[in-house]
Amino acid sequence: MSGLKNVVIIGAASGGATVARALAKSLPETHRIVLIDANEAAFWQVAGLRASVQPGFEDKLFADLATFWKPGSRHIVKPKTKVTELGEDFVVTDAGEKISFDYAVLAMGAKYQTPGRQASHSKAESIASLKQMQAQIAAARHILVVGGGPVGVEFIGEVISQYSGKDKKKITLVHNGKQLIGSKYSASLHSKLSAQLQKAGVHVLLEESIPSEQLPSSTGSLEAARTFTTAKGTSVGDVDFALLSFSGKPNSQLVSAFDASAVDPATQWVRVDEQSLHVLSDDAGKMQRYFALGDVSDAPGGKLVAQINNQGPVIAANIAALVRSSSSKAATAGIKLNAYKPLPTFIAVPLGPAGGAIQTPIATLGEWTVSLIKGKGLFLSNFQSLYKSQ
Ligand SMILES: Cc1cc2nc3c(=O)[nH]c(=O)nc-3n(C[C@H](O)[C@H](O)[C@H](O)COP(=O)(O)OP(=O)(O)OC[C@H]3O[C@@H](n4cnc5c(N)ncnc54)[C@H](O)[C@@H]3O)c2cc1C
Q1: Where are the chain's structural domains?
Q2: Burial of 118 (0-12, 13-18, 19+ CB in 10 A)
Q3: pLDDT digits 0-9 by tens, 141-181
Q4: Among 104, 144, 226, 290, which residue is least crowded by beta carbons within 10 Å?
Q5: Residue 375 near ligand 1, beta carbon < 6 Å
Q6: CA of 225 to the centre of ligand 1 (A)
Q7: Which keywords does this Swiss-Prot/TrEMBL entry list (predicted)?
Q8: Residues 51/382, Cβ–Cβ less than 8 Å
């Protein structure tokens, strides 16, 4: 027995890892971090689309979780371990282990279609799946992209930058909105992206949708080339590869099973106090030791790593303050907690390494800026430094 008390973090992707790194700097030595993830390796979603198209890129996107902490660290990481049950002051894993804690952080993220997430908990299987998708795209003649949000549009950007000239693919994008990316973003973002897609020969159908009964169950090659017909009757023929790019669904089932009042029934996001990021519940006792961030939470500001980078340090500071104030007291009452401040609306949508557009709070800018900020490097160095053994 170590005699140390635990702070459990469920999920070791951007959200969980960011809290873990910040908390390791301030957590009193009476406590240790137990970082748990169902996956063997962390995966950099931000670059997942390029890895699904560009052969050789896939290896850069994974970081083994087993080496998250340096040997000799008092903190623990448990890769390939799924939390299957929550309690007021404990979690249970799929190995049947019950881990008690003083505080816990929910960082379970959201379920996206691949390649927006790993295809498997195994790193080797996830890499094999990305390679398979690269081969399917290389062989495809007509690609249908359903959904013109950031995932669908960025995916097209990767395909047009990888396959040009005689290798160029026919691409059709079907989007049910008036504006690419979404109506909460600027008209200028839409027009900059539309102009580049049009120049590349992409056929964009706005305010159109493919009825759900026609959709394949997942992204990938179709068994045989086929024709799709939109709800308005437009025919999209001879499609042999389809990308389904809908938004992710929060992984909040564990929370609903323990305390349904902590989950927003409309969105399935875990409800948090928008400043302290403490989980909200109608039952005062049940979730008082829990915080949540990232794609599983309803913290304001959009589901982005950029917001997680602000949320993680706030949760770490709040847990450290609570632990210091009284290691036996769970309630937050009486302690002044740190407040999260979301970034203003900001989105970078590269079209491959050299194209795309970016909306900042000041202006919407084009290819040169988005390429410099995101398109070329896809923030891979941030990922590598987050997971460098410490
Ligand atoms: C294709 C794509 C491109 C993106 N591009 C950008 C971008 O350019 N900039 C940006 O800021 N954001 C971008 N995002 C959004 C960003 O990737 C997400 O906001 C971020 O990854 C969310 O991190 P998270 O830690 O909350 O959740 P996730 O990344 O979903 O991770 C959740 C983790 O929890 C683990 N987990 C879940 N349930 C359990 C359980 N019961 N037990 C144990 N482990 C569990 C999972 O295995 C997973 O590792 C992009 C997203 C996608 C899909």
Answers
A1: 5-38+81-112+248-342, 131-246
A2: buried
A3: 999 999 999 999 999 999 999 999 999 999 999 999 999 99
A4: 226
A5: no
A6: 32
A7: FAD, Flavoprotein, Oxidoreductase
A8: no
- Kindly state if the Cβ of 35 falls inside 6 Å of ligand 1: no
Q: How far apart are CA 84 and CA 100, in angstroms?
A: 14
Q: How far is the CA of 130 from the centre of ligand 1 (A)?
A: 17
One fold for both 5-38+81-112+248-342 and 131-246? yes
The contacts of residue 88 (CB under 8 Å, 6+ apart) are 285, 286, 288, 289
Which residue, by CA, sits nearest to atom 27 of ligand 1? 109
* 106 close to ligand 1 (CB < 6 Angstrom): no
pLDDT, one tens digit per residue, over 221-265 is 999 999 999 999 999 999 999 999 877 799 999 999 999 999 999
How far is Cα 329 from Cα 281, in angstroms, rounded to an integer?
18
Superfamily of domain 5-38+81-112+248-342: FAD/NAD(P)-binding domain (3.50.50.60)
The answer to whether 23 and 33 are in contact (CB under 8 A) is: yes
Residue 173's pLDDT is what? 98
Please give the Cα distance from 4 to 11 (Å, whole number): 21
Q: Computed over its alpha carbons, how large is the radius of gyration of the chain?
A: 22
Identity of residue 69: W
Query: Which residues partner with 278 through β-bridges?
Result: 291
Tell me the fold of 131-246: FAD/NAD(P)-binding domain (3.50.50)
DSSP per-residue codes, 62-116: EEEGGGSSPTT-S-EEETT--EEEE-SSEEEETTS-EEE-SEEEE---EE--TTS
CB atoms < 10 A from the CB of 205, how many? 17
